[in-house]
Write the structure tokens for this entry.
Amino acid sequence: MKSLGFDLTRYDTRNIHRDHRPDRNGWWLKIQRNGKRLSKYFSDSNYWGSAEVALIAASEARDEFIKRNPKLPFQPTTIASNSTGVNGVSFAKTHGKSGAFVATWQRDDGGKTVREFAVERYGFHEALNKAIEARRNWEEEQRSKIMAKTKKPKSKAARPLHVSE
């Protein structure tokens, strides 16, 4: 590999990969968060021929993307092996005669919350709907918490200049 002329270990290169080709040199930034993707090429030639400056630009773009798209504490798309179609909602046959739908999620303290909705008590469809509702309410709370953390404070409106006569 061609020497870059700087110490690469000084930089965080997560999601950033070097592209060496006869016709171009640069850095690929590829990242995905919550269903959103960013794939961008940072050519050395666009940064005064400097691999280091191009890497810094890629790092800054990555950090900005992460800031705007914080990782959710749950999988936003349904996992293929899920039998109910909703992540965190499953059917437990061992609960009572008819079983139960179970909604689960991880609390902020690392513990696990389990809410069970018995088919015997609510009926099949109502138990499923209640479990889905419980899980979705938790997901919405998590989104709200994250959005509250990432919102920028509103800037103060510019005051009109005081003009004395």
In short: Residues 100 and 123 are 9 Å apart (CA to CA).
